[in-house]
Amino acid sequence: MTDPKSDDLIHDPDGGLPRLLEIMRRLRDPETGCPWDLEQDFASIAPYTIEEAYEVADAIEREAWDELRRELGDLLFQSVFHAQMASERGLFDFHDVANTMADKMVARHPHVFGDESRDKSAEQQTADWEAIKAAERADKAQKGVLDGVAHGLPALMRAVKLQKRAARVGFDWPETDQVIDKIVEEAQELREATDPDHREEEFGDLLFVMANLARHLDIDPEAALRRANAKFTRRFGAIEAALARQGRRPEDSDHAEMDALWDAAKMREKAEG
């Protein structure tokens, strides 16, 4: 039998976060909950959490604000889901998560919530932020410079974070040209690689240095690659549209023709600004 108060909250359109937390609790109820939700654990839900974060980023990139509202809700639900599973194990609950985040933000912004002056440059605030995070890592007994960079991050993002950590202690190329020279060197090593394992290793080295170049140029490599993906999708769509006007499909064409259609699409985009 369900609690009438619980039902009232679940069906309250203005119930806000308490409503969402109660819905999650009911979904995981061992007797009356959803079988699929009950089967899940942290590991099975983690991929959905990552996917929802990317969908948030996609909505922002497209400036799809109505979609962003929904995607942020989906991402919030992932936090609620993980917190509910943790609560069932007696580890922590959603309120602990929120309070931990609040404590962290207060501690990391002494110039807003403490006695420090707000009269700082963005660079000084960044340096202070990194010093505070370094102290937090020390409290966690993380001894190495690279300790604490999450292994579950997308590889390109993790590469940049690893490089930033190393750069803080002086392990970095001082000039961007030196990074570009290293890219040329790694590309040549990839060209000379013969067996599949060696090629994969050298390809990884090349990607790693490309991520480093992005860092030196103050470019987000994930955002840059998403932009390139969007461009490729748009221009290949133009190829398909051009062929469709002739009653044809890409498989009815050849590389030379599609390459010419690609160049035409590229020229149109440049002409349109």
Automatic annotation (TrEMBL):
What range(s) does the NTP pyrophosphohydrolase MazG-like domain occupy? 40-113, 179-235
What EC number(s) is this enzyme filed under?
3.6.1.8
Annotated Basic and acidic residues bias: 248-258
Reactions accelerated catalytically = ATP + H2O = AMP + diphosphate + H(+)
InterPro entries for this protein? MazG-like_dom, NTP-PPase_MazG-like_C, NTP-PPase_MazG-like_N, NTP_PyrPHydrolase_MazG
Region feature (Disordered): 245-273
Q: Name one GO biological process term.
A: response to stress
Per its UniProt entry, which superkingdom is the organism in?
A: Bacteria
Q: Which GO terms describe its molecular function?
A: ATP diphosphatase activity
Instruction: Give the similarity note.
Output: Belongs to the nucleoside triphosphate pyrophosphohydrolase family.
Q: Which NCBIfam families match?
A: mazG, PRK09562.1
Name assigned to this protein? Nucleoside triphosphate pyrophosphohydrolase
Q: Which organism is it from?
A: Citreimonas salinaria
